Amino acid sequence: MDKPIKAKVRTASPRDLSPVLGVDHLREELKRQRDVRQAIEEERCWLAEADGQVVGYAVVDECFFGNAFIRLIVVAAPFRRRGIGTALMRNVESIFVGRKLFTSTNESNVASQRLMESRGFRRSGAIQNLDEGDPEIVYFKPVEVTPESN
Predict the structure, then answer these.
(1) What's the rounded Cα separation, in Å, for the pair 50 and 53?
(2) By the 8 A CB rule, do 55 and 84 touch?
(3) What is the pLDDT of residues 32-86, one digit of tens each?
(4) Class for domain 8-149, per CATH?
(5) What is the pLDDT of residues 95-121, one digit of tens each?
(6) Which residues are CB-contacts of 10 (< 8 A; sequence separation ≥ 6)?
(7) Which of 92, 49, 38 is nearest to 67 (CA)?
(8) SS3 at position 90
(9) DSSP string spanning 20-83?
């Protein structure tokens, strides 16, 4: 892990759309642009800033069987493994205290799995056939009130 970066996490606003998409390797996909724009408009998108620069973002939906689901955690490549994903996760967990929180990642995405497990998420199952030959691993965490979330 490179030297950790102190990131400030805040709710994204409509003026943040371009910088938020700027850190996303799928920014050219129209569906991704629409989804992120909608999440920002609905105040379901949080961004991480370091030295005034957007370095990552998270999007949460509340449509996973009535539970919160972290749909996206995106960190700009130069800032990965420096605490940005953890800062975003910590922020989301603080918002959904006392509720079930779910997320998922591909079986091939070991870095994401490590992040989830480091935050106390447990494997809850797998979904086949979303990405050919790369099952989606579902994670679950009952978010409790902890000194860290205050």
Answers:
(1) 5
(2) yes
(3) 999 999 999 999 999 999 999 999 999 999 989 989 999 999 999 999 999 999 9
(4) alpha beta
(5) 998 889 999 999 999 999 999 999 999
(6) 46, 47, 49
(7) 92
(8) helix
(9) HHHT-TTTT-HHHHHHHHHHHHTT-EEEEEETTEEEEEEEEEEEETTEEEEEEEEE-GGGTTTT
